[in-house]
Amino acid sequence: MRFLAIAALLCSSTAALAADLPNVKAPPVYAPPPFTWSGFYIGANGGYGWTQGSSGTVFITPPGSSSIPYAGNSVNSNGAIAGGQLGYNWQFGSLVLGGEGDFDWTGIKGSTVPDPQNGPVASLLTARQNWLATVRGRVGYAIGQVLLYATGGVGFTEANITDTRLIHSNDTLRSGSATQVGGVVGAGAEWAFAEHWSVKLEYLHAWFGDQTYHLNTSTGPYAAFDVSTSIHSNSDLVRAGINYRF
After folding, report:
1. pTM exceeding the 0.70 threshold for the entire prediction
2. Which of 4, 26, 69, 195 has the fewest Cβ atoms within 10 Å of its own Cβ atom?
3. Which band of pLDDT confidence, cut at 50, 70 and 90, is reported for residue 64?
4. Largest Cα–Cα distance of the chain, in whole Å?
5. Which residues, in sequence order, are CB contacts of 218 under 8 Å at separation 6+?
6. Got the DSSP string for 79-125?
7. CB-based contacts of 62, cutoff 8 Å, min separation 6
8. Residue, of 141 and 219, whose pLDDT is higher
């Protein structure tokens, strides 16, 4: 009986002591939220572009007379590009839908000597693409933090055409510029290397319809002559970029 009494006393003392101890729990294990491509992003890009353009035929129109075809040749241009983009993605499982707009300043430029058709030509025809902007939709397939996508939409560009001494060696420089609208398609890949940051590499092809440029000057003996040419250009771009995703 004495032994049972001692055992009961020890058990009650241990229970009381355990009740007085603080309740310590292990800290919860942090589980980061699953990665998603959904949300807004903004970024910068840079790369290289080239344009295949045809000047077709250069027309000269003397005052009071009809146009005279004079010369023509192709102008192929190339150069660096740089700019920025912003967009939004929606992810549904592995499917990623989105929209993106971008604006690039371009150094795409090229020159050619027109092929004479009606006599000698002392001339240099220069074509320069000043800027290029696009508004595109994107559809992609996500493999974790890698996104493969196709894209397409509308492209806008401003080009400047300059002719030096097209009519006569004493004539002054003539130039004209215009904004063109066309289509654009492409494809690319993007990799999210950090929680908010991703890098991408993409190719775009933009095509623009015929655009007539009036190359006019206010000085020189042939200032009253109207000089025009029609440019049909297709632009190809390879760009690398970096995005910050909100």
Report:
1. yes
2. 26
3. confident
4. 136
5. none
6. EEEEEEEEEEEEEETTEEEEEEEEEEEEEEEEEE--EESSS----EE
7. 68, 224, 225
8. 141
DSSP 179-214: EEEEEEEEEEEEEE-SSSEEEEEEEEEEEE--EEEE
- Total residues found in the chain within this entry: 246
Among the listed residues 142, 149, 151, 39, the one whose alpha carbon sits nearest the alpha carbon of residue 94:
142
Number of H helices, E strands in the chain: 1, 12
CB-based burial, 142-151: b 16+ in 10 Å, e otherwise:
beeeebebeb
Number of alpha carbons in the 13 Å side-chain half-sphere of residue 33:
5
Please compute Rg for the chain using Cα positions. 34
- Note the helical H segments in the chain: 2-20
Pull the structure tokens for residue 140: 């992609």
Instruction: Calculate the CA 109 to chain-centre distance.
Output: 18
The span from the CA of 15 to the CA of 50, in Å, is 84
What confidence tens digit (pLDDT) does each residue in 104-124 have?
Answer: 999 988 877 665 554 445 567
- For the chain, which domains are there? 56-245 (2.40.160)
